[in-house]
Amino acid sequence: MNINCIAIDDEPLALDIIKDYCSKVAFLNLLRTFDNAIESIEYIRSNKVDLIFLDIQMEELTGIQLLNALKHRPFVIFTTAYERYAIQGFELDVVDYMLKPISFERFIKGVNKVSERIQLDAGGAKPENGKTKSAEASFFFVKTETRMERIENSDVLYVEGMGDYWRIVTKTRRIMTLMNARKLEEVLHEPQFCRVHKSFFIALDKIESIERNRIKIADQYIPVSETYHKAFFDLIERKKLA
After folding, report:
1. 20 to 30 A Cα–Cα from 130, which one of 15, 40, 60, 111?
2. What's the mean pLDDT in 127-142?
3. CA pair distance 74, 15, nearest whole angstrom
4. 218, 206 in Cβ contact below 8 A?
5. Domain end marker among 89, 123, 157
6. Has residue 142 got a pLDDT over 70?
């Protein structure tokens, strides 16, 4: 499977880096590069473009304005020097948000996400809520006191309610955020996550053991309440091998 892509950036050096990285990835076919977003619009409309590497802060037309001008959008990876547009990227359903300078390792991670989403689209796989899996983001943003924090789904161990706040515990961080439970449930749902208590969401693949009504994750024992007991253990039963 080849992915036809273009790169749009008003910095020649940034375009050279994308060209170099694309040349090293067998499934990427870089069709063209543009140093002006306006010039790219007709090309995108007239050609089969699967993926755009898109800078945000450009003269005449920003990357965000370009996306809003497109009726049918290819997959998009933002390539930018600015963190402040991250939440807009999330709202626009971009596949990834890469901060400059971009390492090749980080580039590979981003294009692999695009490859996975294209394959899911081709397979037509749909989860229980009816949305295609390709529409499911592999990360989410939460607001802390001073900034928006990006969190990879795969890094989350569990989330604990603490009064009006939620503490998101990952492999490397503990992040406090003010968010209502319903909004959190929109992000932390099956098949990757499960709510087991009014104060706890857990990552199913991080469970180390289950003893009676307690789940062990990273040396933390998490209770399973009566409200969520049946749904949780029904889910575990479906995953049992014997």
Report:
1. 111
2. 55
3. 19
4. yes
5. 123
6. yes
CA distance linking residue 115 with residue 120, whole number of Å? 9
Region for residue 240 given its phi and psi (left: phi exceeds 0; alpha: psi -120 to 50; beta: otherwise): beta
Range of the domain at 82: 3-123
Q: Which residues pair with 79 in a beta bridge?
A: 98
From start to end of the chain, where are the E strands? Answer: 3-8, 28-34, 51-54, 75-80, 96-99, 139-143, 148-152, 156-162, 165-170, 174-178, 193-197, 200-203, 209-211, 214-217, 220-223
**Which DSSP state fits 207?**
-
Residue 78 CB coordination number (10 Å)? 25
Beta carbons of 81 and 100 less than 8 angstroms apart: yes
**pLDDT 10s digits, 152-178:** 889 999 999 998 899 999 989 999 998
Using DSSP, state whether 27 is helix, strand or coil.
coil
Structural contact between residues 169 and 158, judged by C-beta atoms closer than 8 angstroms:
yes
